[in-house]
Design a protein that fits this description.
35% helix, GH (chains A, B), five-stranded antiparallel β-sheet, 503 residues, EC 3.2.1.52 (chains A, B), disulfide bond (chains A, B), homodimer, eight-stranded parallel β-sheet
Amino acid sequence: MSSRCNLRFLIPGLALLLGGVPSVLAVWPQPQQIRNSAERYSLSARAFLFKHADVSAVRSGCDVLDQAFTRYFTLIFPESGGGGTGDTGAALINTLLHCCVYMHSWNLILNISGLESLSQLVEQDDYGAYYINKTEIEDFPRFQFRGLLLDTSRHYLPLQAILKTLDAMAYSKLNVFHWHIVDDPSFPYQSRKYPDLSKKGAYHPFTHIYTQTDVRRVIEHARLRGIRVLAEFDSPGHTQSWGNGQPSLLTPCYRGDVPSGTYGPVNPILDSTYVFMANLLKEVTSVFPDSYIHLGGDEVDFSCWKSNPDIKAFMKKMGFGSDFTKLESFYMQNIVNISTMLNRSSVVWQDVFDYHEINRPRYVVEVWKWGCYLCEVRRVTKAGLKVILASPWYLDLPGPTHDWARYYNVRPLAFKGTEEQKKLVIGGEVCMWGEYVDATNLSPRLWPRACAAAERLWSDEVQTSSVDQAFPRLTDFRCRLLRRGIQAEPLYVGHCKNEYQGI
Amino acid sequence: MSSRCNLRFLIPGLALLLGGVPSVLAVWPQPQQIRNSAERYSLSARAFLFKHADVSAVRSGCDVLDQAFTRYFTLIFPESGGGGTGDTGAALINTLLHCCVYMHSWNLILNISGLESLSQLVEQDDYGAYYINKTEIEDFPRFQFRGLLLDTSRHYLPLQAILKTLDAMAYSKLNVFHWHIVDDPSFPYQSRKYPDLSKKGAYHPFTHIYTQTDVRRVIEHARLRGIRVLAEFDSPGHTQSWGNGQPSLLTPCYRGDVPSGTYGPVNPILDSTYVFMANLLKEVTSVFPDSYIHLGGDEVDFSCWKSNPDIKAFMKKMGFGSDFTKLESFYMQNIVNISTMLNRSSVVWQDVFDYHEINRPRYVVEVWKWGCYLCEVRRVTKAGLKVILASPWYLDLPGPTHDWARYYNVRPLAFKGTEEQKKLVIGGEVCMWGEYVDATNLSPRLWPRACAAAERLWSDEVQTSSVDQAFPRLTDFRCRLLRRGIQAEPLYVGHCKNEYQGI
């Protein structure tokens, strides 16, 4: 996964201008190597075009690149309507995208990331003329998994809000959209197999759901931007809304000897539960093509299980004693097995790892709890399992914008461990939970704070250890986000040439 | 200022429906008296009209009311395009706006507030049909001054962002827009007399300024909504941007015996300073009609004054010793005198009061410092001066949305003092400073948290002492704000029938 991408600009036939290196040479996140020069070339939107390198195995017809060319042409020249993928014109920018030769998913991302870097290097002078300084970049991401979680259950997020987030993720080179699509409060995923889940479990059966078409649109929008979509169907806890449309799925809670009328986590002792989960996950894996699926497993409240006589009998039969973590592990083992049969790698929240110390199945552990999160990373990697780190990047709770420095200063590998252990840290993820967040405040709460995590996950840690050096670059990048229509809040006093116009 | 407004709905000829009192009878802020009944009347957008009461001295032609009728017709019936002020139709809602008889500013506000209450009582049933429960309201504001400060210097706010804020203020019955229009970082006010101030002091001389037309538009938009515009030209500190366009206004700082090239607060020892300030304030009072003007006076850094030999000589001559608070008081006294000559009441930040213990001029003191702010309120009222309380309502620093409860629990009169002292507390104000705020995050940071302060300033404190009782009403009011296009963030998990569509 360390395939490198060289990006050089060869610009024959363009006037070389006098000029210096701009004060802020902002590529965010910082490339592994970037060499600027004072040589400045002017760019003409009429003559500019993207061309596949002669050495590239990819030709026109690769939709991801073709569409990226069109998109980035418009991002570079916002005044122009589009175009830029034809093969006429006086000047060429010959993007030597070596990585293009291999079209599997990771390299694809690198290609798009190269276009993003290129687009960030184009500046406008005081007269509005576009130019680029001669630049050589060698780049690759430090971590392969650079995620962002959205929670569409606590508040419904309209499709447009998700698509906009994907746009901004691509600009920041985040490459995994972790879709925490359902949870206790609502079930907006419209299942083909179990339509009652959203019909009875969504906030509204028509206006507050994601249809199959919506989901496809999200996945396609993400794919074209080099972003994977990791769907999470969290169980056995966080499933209150599931119970509305799937009777007998949840555990009936008891008050003394009688059912209290309330329900707890998924009932782990019924065969019907596993039939349902297998059917649901089979559908989910047919809809979401990513090789990972997130199975949740966090924060299971055992009190309802404890109250239920059938569960207690089962515990006894299984020899679990009074240790309900064993019951959860039993359930999760079954769900992970289903996922494995469906040819998916499972991701689970750290609770699952913590509860299950022997014969753990192979899963990726997402570390989310606060405290010594690197201690947990160390434990998980010591057990030979892969880790995604989320703890330090819970951005849903608002803080002052300058909190970005806290997110920036995270050191994901600063734990005692072998090289093998470090390699098991596949990346990290920004979490935007939905208790206090919906479409009204999602964007300014995410951006630019999430960019700090994005650079930490992409760039070399030593080269990007200074908050002071990052500040002007991030300020500049935030203005670029505004110009691209992302409602990113300000870092501090000041202004952008193009202020936010979305009021 | 305690003029009361009775609002009763007489609805002849309308079908009386079976129905109950809706679970949340949300009028926000809570009226002084509200009596609901289960009698429900259906409303037809085709037949509905506003009519002046027979006892009202106001007839058509009062633009504030005529335009408010049109506006509230559309707010009540969003599907209808407009209209509703004609005099035909089968049914009447006869709004008995007694207060209408007197058209001075405070009563005007009450009238509009009555329309706002009415609009909040109209509900739609499951079939979309409009109805209103028979309701009797007697209402008046607890405090006359219910302000909201926007800072357009640290970040420029586009005109549209200000107008939207005024809309939301009217919905919340906030009635003073405190425009902190200039400060250190930029001077966006385009002065007729001193055009260089914005030309050289704004972030950009064309895109980041408020022209005279812009300012008139803000004042008119506010007036039509019963909102006063209190302009602040803060000096002698917070004036760095002024110096760009007005040479010799600021104090040259010294390093040893030589000027350092940097500048400090306004130079208080030059006649030219007072000529300039008199001219500027004369223009300002001709542009802003409100009887109050805010003169600032906060956070003056004395280090530059201390370094300047001319200032030191002046201090000696005046017998100020080394007490620079006396120099600031000397300056503020002169500025307050200018304002008095211009027939304006001055508002100043508490620093001015704190520094000047004898022979204080008559001004209104705005209390902004944290700590025992009620101690300060007590001191100011003991000195016989009016107070505006801002300390507990600094909303610019983000907090979790549930901070609203903190703003709600403020008790502005909970200090030991006489009845006379309490009457001197004319109100309070929400402050939205601009360090971390611009058009990208202004609305969700303000709303609905500012609504908590709005209710505290309008409603009876005893009747509105419970956060738990306020929560469902505020949740409901926040959905109403969304429906009206205000980007108000969520209080907690849940949804609105009409989600925010502004993405």
